[in-house]
Write a structure and sequence with these properties.
It is a single chain. By secondary structure, the chain is of the alpha/beta class. The chain has one domain: Ribonuclease Z/Hydroxyacylglutathione hydrolase-like (Metallo-beta-lactamase, Chain A, 4-Layer Sandwich), CATH 3.60.15.10. It is built from nine helices and twelve strands. A seven-stranded mixed β-sheet has the order 1-2-3-4-5-6-7. A five-stranded mixed β-sheet has the order 8-9-10-11-12, covered by helices on one side. Helix 6 packs antiparallel against helix 7 and helix 7 packs across helix 9. The longest helix is centred in the C-terminal third of the chain and has 24 residues. The chain starts with a helix and ends with a helix. 44% of the residues are buried.
Length: 307
């Protein structure tokens, strides 16, 4: 009898253990037939399955378009499960908005479902170059939750713009310049005024300037995006927002970094002096500020040296 009584307790402990924790991907409708999932604002963790960025999908009468396939095969399965709560239409296309792991490592799942995978040519090159590093990093962090994941590259590329017309939806994929990553792209629905910005826009947290980021290109891409005059932006990170918020928390910060560091380089200031004289405090309330501010300043100074 004692053995039988301990079984439910064992099951309860297992279900409450970290091994049983599961990512809850919730998609909200931001416009008719257009859905977005908002990722966590912190780092990639076992609990969030590496999915600390946003993803989305677009429902049409002829099929579904997925915007970013997630950080793993299993996350992609969860994205598909969320889609099936809305529609039984098949996934026709997957668009990777950049080369970060959470934008494309779920490609293998959707390719197996028959979807065509699309990304900019520079994004594909970025994935090919950094894919092994990303795979190894997430494999160590996610453990069994990373099972089944392979670095599956997109099957269709474009250089500047690719237009899709599916089930009456006009969907345009645009690349402006290298930004947060070399192949960052946006997904634009002109009729609805909705833009999936990928990592060209960060809100609700401090953005990260990475060793392969291009701050001047990022700013130029932001201004090209502004010309579209989107009504709603689904950013790469943070809640759905408008252009004003996107400018305050992305473009204004990038402009602060770049202008300061270009001036410092032109004045012959060394790296440490340039960093010490940079006032980033206007952005101090954003999550990840302490973690990222130093690296951001450092990398933009190195970029300014080459301008």
């Amino acid at each position: 009898m004692k053995r039988l009584l301990t079984l439910p307790l064992f099951i309860l402990l297992f279900l409450c253990s970290p091994l049983a924790s599961a990512l809850d991907l919730t998609f909200k409708q931001v416009a008719p037939g257009i859905y977005a999932s908002i990722g966590e604002l912190g780092l990639r963790t076992y609990e969030n399955e590496g999915m600390n960025g946003n993803a989305g999908f677009i429902v049409t009468e002829a099929g579904v378009v997925v915007v970013d396939s997630g950080s793993s095969y299993q996350v992609a399965q969860k994205i598909h499960a969320a889609i099936r709560q809305v529609t039984q239409q098949p996934v026709k296309y997957v668009i990777n908005t950049g080369g970060q792991d959470h934008r494309w490592l779920g490609n293998g799942y959707f390719k197996a479902q028959g979807a065509e995978i699309i990304a900019h040519t520079r994004a594909v090159a970025d994935m090919a170059e950094r894919g092994d590093m990303q795979m190894n990093g997430l494999k160590g962090e996610l453990k069994e939750k990373f099972a089944g994941t392979d670095a599956v590259l997109p099957t269709r590329t474009f250089d500047q713009e690719l237009a899709l017309n599916l089930g009456g939806r006009d969907i345009r994929i645009l690349h402006f310049q290298p930004a947060h990553t070399p192949g960052d792209s946006v997904v634009w629905l002109p009729k609805e005024g909705v833009l999936f910005s990928g990592d060209i826009v960060f809100v609700d947290r401090l953005l990260g300037v990475l060793p392969f980021s291009n701050t001047s290109g990022w700013l130029a891409s932001f201004e090209s995006m502004v010309k579209l005059q989107p009504r709603l932006i689904v950013p790469g990170h943070g809640e759905v927002c408008d252009l004003a918020k996107a400018r305050r928390e992305t473009a204004d910060y990038l402009r602060l970094l770049l202008d300061h560091m270009v001036k410092a380089v032109n004045q012959g200031k060394d790296l440490q002096t340039a960093i010490d004289s940079l006032d980033q405090s206007a952005f101090a309330k954003l999550p990840n500020y302490e973690l990222l501010k130093g690296g951001n300043a450092n990398r933009v100074y190195l970029e300014a040296e080459s301008l």
